[in-house]
């Protein structure tokens, strides 16, 4: 048996992987066509099954998490220093400095009023915790029938069962688990928005009609609804759909007027990705519950957090249950918390806003020419997110290989070739990403 993580040539590693490891949303007998041989800064060193090696800009930030790049010395040091003290302790009956410091930082950074923190294993788990919070809140307020959720078509909130239940009911995974996923209520996607003068704007009539549907739906179902859950301003895995902040503001108003909670799933949108520190900031609203994850540790370790208001916390504490009914084994893992503290400090000290604005401008310039391609329906950019939407499904293997040959790692899905690069990407990196995406789409789809 080889030593775990021992170096191996890419073709051998890929052959050993095949049929042994599951990969995300892939069959067991499918391929993982590329092996990671190294990573540093914004670059990945990859090897293919045919022996070809690639040096590529990571246009994906490892699914939007590695915002500071790879082998970042600040994060490396935080990890090693904490490992020298202790790597893990149970969180039941114990606390430790990294967890307390992280919670204090999150409370200070998030919109005012989110004063209480639950440290979760992953983004999906943080959503599960948020949904539990909402149901327990309503129980504590004497409304035990309020157990359902109002979500958005096109939304994505994770792969665990309750989280799947509030994902898009058609494009999500509802049909695969019909007896296990609770039936929730869904609103249409809010109207699409585009940046104009630094603001996100949408058609006023379309927005008014959407708000009317929101108000009518809540009026009819308020006695069974616990909360509204949404990804503020940008729906990620559901299609990279940017929508009007006015829809978010309306959801906040309607939730407050009807005794519902508003859950902001900021796992993808939080920590600067859209050009605001949190997506909720585009509308100037504060959710009752907020989930953060992905970029929280800079891509080093899995960690997420669920924050809630004092009102929610009081209702839980005053309820017969008193406690929030969740408690993972690795809750508050010290290694993850220490790296997250360092990542949040680096986010601020490195000037995330200027970093993201620079990427936004670069993506606008370098992706714009893709709009003239026959296969392209639309090009859109928001913060450090660039999207080339095709008129039909992407040939994922072919576009991926073509982009790699041009020095760019992308992971398209459905009809989207998109990028969410590390915030540390240089102007040259961004230009390489844009040129690679354009050329790969042109080569494969015309």
Automatic annotation (TrEMBL):
Reactions this protein catalyses: (8S)-8-amino-7-oxononanoate + S-adenosyl-L-methionine = S-adenosyl-4-methylsulfanyl-2-oxobutanoate + (7R,8S)-7,8-diammoniononanoate
Site feature location: Participates in the substrate recognition with KAPA and in a stacking interaction with the adenine ring of SAM: 25
Positions of modified residues (N6-(pyridoxal phosphate)lysine): 294
Assigned GO CC terms: cytoplasm
Pathway info: Cofactor biosynthesis; biotin biosynthesis; 7,8-diaminononanoate from 8-amino-7-oxononanoate (SAM route): step 1/1
Enzyme Commission code(s) on record: 2.6.1.62
InterPro entries: Aminotrans_3, Aminotrans_3_PPA_site, BioA, PyrdxlP-dep_Trfase, PyrdxlP-dep_Trfase_major, PyrdxlP-dep_Trfase_small
Molecular function GO terms recorded: adenosylmethionine-8-amino-7-oxononanoate transaminase activity; pyridoxal phosphate binding
GO biological process: biotin biosynthetic process
EC class: transferase
NCBIfam families in the record: bioA, PRK05964.1
Similarity annotation: Belongs to the class-III pyridoxal-phosphate-dependent aminotransferase family. BioA subfamily.
Protein name: Adenosylmethionine-8-amino-7-oxononanoate aminotransferase
UniProt organism field: Arthrobacter wenxiniae
Lineage, broadest ranks: Bacteria, Bacillati, Actinomycetota, Actinomycetes, Micrococcales
Gene responsible for this protein: bioA
């Amino acid at each position: 048996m080889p030593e775990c993580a021992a170096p191996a040539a890419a073709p051998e590693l890929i052959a050993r992987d095949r049929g042994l490891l599951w990969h995300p949303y892939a069959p067991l007998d499918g391929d993982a066509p590329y092996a990671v041989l190294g990573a540093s800064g914004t670059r990945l060193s990859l090897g293919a099954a045919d022996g070809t090696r690639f040096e590529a800009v990571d246009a994906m930030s490892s699914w939007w998490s590695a915002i500071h790049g790879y082998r970042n010395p600040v994060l490396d040091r935080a990890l090693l220093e904490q490992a020298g003290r202790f790597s893990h302790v149970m969180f039941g009956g114990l606390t430790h400095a990294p967890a307390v410091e992280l919670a204090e930082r999150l409370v200070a950074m998030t919109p005012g009023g989110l004063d209480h923190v639950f440290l979760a294993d992953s983004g999906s788990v943080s959503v599960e915790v948020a949904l539990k919070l909402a149901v327990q809140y309503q129980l504590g307020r004497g409304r035990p029938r309020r157990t359902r959720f109002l979500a958005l078509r096109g939304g994505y909130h994770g792969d665990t069962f309750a989280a799947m239940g509030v994902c898009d009911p058609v494009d999500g995974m509802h049909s695969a688990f019909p007896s296990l996923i609770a039936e929730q209520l869904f609103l249409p996607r809010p109207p699409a928005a585009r940046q104009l003068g630094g603001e996100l704007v949408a058609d006023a009539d379309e927005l008014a009609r959407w708000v009317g549907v929101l108000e009518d739906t809540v009026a009819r179902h308020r006695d069974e609804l616990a909360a509204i859950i949404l990804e503020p301003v940008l729906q990620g895995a559901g299609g990279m759909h940017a929508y009007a902040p006015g829809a978010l503001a309306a959801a906040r108003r309607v939730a407050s007027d009807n005794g519902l909670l508003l859950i902001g799933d900021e796992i993808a949108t939080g920590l600067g990705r859209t050009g605001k520190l949190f997506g909720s900031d585009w509308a100037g609203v504060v959710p009752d519950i907020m989930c953060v994850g992905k970029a929280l540790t800079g891509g080093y370790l899995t960690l997420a957090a669920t924050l809630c208001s004092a009102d929610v916390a009081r209702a839980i504490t005053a309820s017969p249950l008193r406690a929030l009914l969740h408690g993972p084994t690795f809750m508050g893992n010290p290694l993850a918390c220490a790296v997250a503290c360092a990542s949040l400090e680096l986010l601020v000290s490195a000037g995330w806003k200027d970093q993201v604005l620079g990427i936004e401008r670069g993506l606008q310039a370098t992706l714009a020419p893709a709009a003239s391609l026959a296969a392209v329906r639309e090009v859109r950019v928001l913060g450090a997110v660039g999207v080339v939407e095709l008129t039909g499904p992407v040939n994922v293997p072919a576009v991926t290989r073509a982009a790699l040959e041009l020095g760019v790692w992308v992971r398209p899905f459905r009809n989207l070739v998109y990028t969410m690069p590390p915030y540390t990407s240089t102007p040259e990196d961004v230009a390489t990403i844009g040129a690679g995406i354009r050329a790969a789409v042109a080569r494969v789809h015309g």
